[in-house]
Amino acid sequence: MPASYERKGPDALQKLFLYLIIFDWIILIYLIVSIKDMSFQHGAMTSVAVAAFNLILVNLCFRRARRAEDGYQIYPVIIGALLSFVLIAYYFFF
Q: What is the spatial distance between Cα 2 and Cα 48, in angstroms, rounded to a whole number?
């Protein structure tokens, strides 16, 4: 029988993941404030970069939540991804 492992606080990967979620929300807030002042080329590149970042973050979130049973992390990531796609649609269509 293996010895039980007692974790002392959150691990470094967990902290990094939470900082990535906060960084995602900071980027989204910045884009909401400044997207009207961007040129089309700059806005298009920014939109693609934010969409790629959110897809990677959602993929990491689902893997992490399934493995460590940290399901509470899914909600801010999914809401952020949906907000970014709404923001991209607004930028390109309106």
A: 47
CB contact set of 44 (below 8 Å; sequence gap of 6+): 92
- 71: closest CA among 81, 61, 84, 60? 61
Q: Are 87 and 28 in contact (CB under 8 A)?
A: yes
Choose the weakest-confidence range: 29-33, 37-41, 61-65.
61-65
User: What pLDDT sits at residue 23?
Assistant: 94
DSSP conformation class of 37: G
Supply the DSSP string of 41-93, one letter for each residue: HHHHHHHHHHHHHHHHHHHHHHHHHHHH--GGGHHHHHHHHHHHHHHHHHHHH
End-to-end C-alpha distance for the chain, whole angstroms:
62
